[in-house]
């Protein structure tokens, strides 16, 4: 619905966006005025999802072989706990929960970018093949160079970016169309999956088992050492995405409309693709390929927010909530055995995909 203008009771011009919107006006450092538009429903949904994430996070911090009551967990987070509780909650378990939050947010934002660019709910990095490409890069480092964590992370990052470049070039025909990008991505993903299987079969048993565990996607064993780089890179990438978000909205309306609004289509699309791939590769480098969060989070957030398209911030918060919950289930479902979180997300994603396909069939 197009926004309409009307005068409010103060005589100022008000804009009707068709849904409750709050406009905050602030003064900047140079004495000028800034306006910030907040969607009321989106804000409430994000706050509720953050509450869910925090609640599940506290449960995760208190669960395990050494159980800590929620009150003691909160006291540990505030710095008022015994040495033993502080060690269990802060030093052992907190990095994993924070990594789940950051990785889930990164996957949610990456999924929102690609679903917006392709204008298709199936246009996520999982389906297009960027996860598989990152997996290929990591497997190559594990099996050929027997590299450590940071070498594997660099290999995953390089593999994801190289795969994105190949998919982008093969799909480019005087511009990029979403459907063509998805089809080319599915084809490249199938080829890389076959290559990954061949590499695993050729490796010795110990290396193949290590590669299989890593390829399932897991947060087991991650610590503050891995949290720092993920937080720094994410802090650099998220402002770029927020800066490009308005252009992303215009690209959803079609290339011709975006050009008529002054948007340079291909440079902005390429910048969004690179940023989205970097977010996916960042997660793959840290925890292995975690599937279906990028696929499900933007669409679930869109339905809760009831927005016409996917939004960046609700997708990020939904991704964080989904991955924190999945990791809690992975730790507690078959305790003391801990599943890779990728196994849980694949199960949830399979149910979501069936529900999505059934809904699409009913609409047709």
Topology:
Blueprint: E1 4-7, E2 13-16, E3 21-27, E4 33-39, H1 40-62, H2 70-77, H3 83-118, H4 125-128, H5 130-145, H6 149-171, H7 178-202, H8 205-215, H9 224-252, H10 255-260, H11 265-287, H12 293-305, H13 312-332, H14 341-363
Antiparallel strand pairs: 1-2, 3-4
Helix pairs in contact: 1-2, 1-3, 1-13, 2-3, 3-9, 3-11, 3-12, 3-13, 5-6, 5-7, 5-8, 5-11, 6-7, 6-11, 9-11, 12-13, 13-14
Give a description of the structure.
The protein is mostly helical and 364 residues long. 72% of the residues lie in helices and 6% in strands. The protein contains 14 helices and four strands. The protein has helices at residues 40-62, 70-77, 83-118, 125-128, 130-145, 149-171, 178-202, 205-215, 224-252, 255-260, 265-287, 293-305, 312-332, 341-363, and strands spanning 4-7, 13-16, 21-27, 33-39. Strand 3 (21-27) and strand 4 form a beta hairpin. Helix 5 packs across helix 6 and helix 6 runs antiparallel to helix 11 (265-287).
Query: How many helical stretches?
Result: 14
Order of helices and strands: EEEEHHHHHHHHHHHHHH
Radius of gyration: 22 Å
Q: What helical percentage do the residues reach?
A: over 70%
Shape, please?
globular
Task: Name some characteristics of this structure.
mainly alpha, 4 strands, 364 residues, 72% helix, two-stranded antiparallel sheet, single chain, 14 helices
